[in-house]
Write a structure and sequence with these properties.
The chain is built from five helices and 28 strands. With about 375 residues, it is mostly beta strands. The chain folds into three domains: about 70 residues, no CATH class; about 130 residues, Glucose Oxidase, domain 1; about 60 residues, SH3 type barrels. It has a 17-stranded mixed beta sheet that branches. A hairpin with a 3-residue loop joins β12 and β13. α3 packs parallel to α4. The radius of gyration is 29 Å and the shape is elongated.
């Protein structure tokens, strides 16, 4: 049977999740294949070169550039401490207070000494960079000097938009159903260290309360763009998110506005109440799409045999759960009931392939295929 491919979000109770944990530069891999790892475990480490700072020693000492080599007390490659003497000129008439000096402005090493410009380049201490496992799982592959791949059978949810980076915590559902707005009143001290699960839109006040009680993250159906500006203090651009240091990570599963979380997504999260979830709000909508996500690892053996075809993306077909991503049915969720093969004339008088979808409330509608995304399971 042929299938029509439509991009979509994954929402699965059980899928083999594999995360590549790669260093920005070559370094040392700390884990080996078969190691069981936790989210905070360091699996690879490297050092980024320190910042470079130029010092015009010739100007400081009142010498021509070609003369500074004879005055240097340190040479290229030598370590220096902040405030340490690097160069001193010969005193006039044997009186040392007539000698000029140059001191290091940072702790690091001397990168180079130029007799052309009269400058000394200092490089600060290397900056340590550590890559953690991010999820609870097993190391299944090692990339020498680069990193590892960590796998775990997990519940897996992709969102529409997020802010904040990688974190983890205990799932705590604080609303009764997927249609309840997540407000400040739902959050208290018991949410410390938790991933708070909401229903529909979350308010800016609720996010601030989550930060104040020490929550690790929030997963909810919708978020208002005005609340986003109030929360961040600026308009967010189209570049990748995830680097914000706000004290909490937010994952929005449906979109902007008063949109209820998909029932399947809410029930999956609620059924895992009390379990650990690893979440990441990083989002990129341009080329190289990055989705925010929630991973709920299980204790299953990653090498357990399973039907791989069950996890293969087969595209759009009758029975596919979909979400409408454009008006007039924006945000509604339903199931594909028919996929006509012929082109259909739309209200705009253009022709496009369409599908018939039955929404959760029972209503049916004809929608252009380009206006939906699959909720993959």
């Amino acid at each position: 049977m042929a299938h029509s491919y439509t991009p979509g979000l994954k929402v699965s109770e059980r899928i083999l999740v594999t995360k590549r944990r790669i260093l920005p530069l070559k370094g040392e891999v700390m884990a080996k294949v078969g190691d069981k790892v936790q989210p905070d475990d360091v699996v690879a480490r490297t050092f980024l070169p320190g910042d470079v700072e130029p010092i015009n020693v010739a100007n400081q000492m009142g010498l021509p550039p070609e003369d500074i080599a004879a005055c240097m007390l340190k040479k290229a490659g030598d370590a220096v401490e902040k405030g340490e003497l690097m160069a001193r000129s010969k005193p006039l008439f044997g009186l040392k207070w007539f000698a000029s000096e140059s001191k290091s402005t940072l702790t690091g090493t001397i990168e180079s000494v130029s007799t052309v410009t009269g400058q000394v380049l200092l490089r600060g201490k290397p900056l340590p960079v550590e890559v953690t496992a991010y999820i609870t799982g097993e190391v299944v592959e090692v990339f020498p000097e680069e990193g590892v791949a960590v796998s775990a059978w997990s519940g897996f949810i992709q969102g529409i938009f997020g802010i904040g980076g990688e974190t983890y915590g205990t799932i705590k559902t604080v609303v009764e159903n997927n249609q309840t707005k997540l407000e400040e009143k739902h959050i208290d001290e018991s949410c410390n260290g938790c991933i708070i699960i909401g229903g529909s839109r979350v308010t800016a006040e609720a996010i601030k309360k989550a930060i104040s009680v020490g929550a690790k993250g929030v997963i909810t159906g919708g978020f208002d763009d005005k609340d986003l500006r109030e929360f961040l203090g600026y308009d967010i651009g189209v570049a990748i998110t995830g680097s914000e240091n706000l004290g909490v990570t937010l994952v929005v599963t449906e979109g902007f506005g008063d949109i209820s979380m998909a029932r399947k997504t809410f029930e999956l999260l609620k059924s895992n109440d009390g379990k650990m979830a690893c979440i990441n709000g990083a989002t990129q909508i341009r080329a190289g799409v990055i989705r925010p996500e929630a991973v709920i690892p299980t204790d299953m053996d990653v090498h357990a045999k399973d039907d791989a075809d069950a996890f293969e993306q087969i595209g759009l077909h009758v029975g596919s759960p979909v979400r409408v991503i454009r008006h007039p049915h924006f945000g509604r969720i339903g199931e594909v009931t028919n996929l006509p093969s012929e082109l259909t004339v739309l209200e705009s008088e253009s022709k496009a392939r369409v599908l018939e979808v039955q929404f959760e409330e029972g209503e049916k509608a004809i929608v252009p295929r380009a206006n939906v995304e699959i909720i993959e399971s």
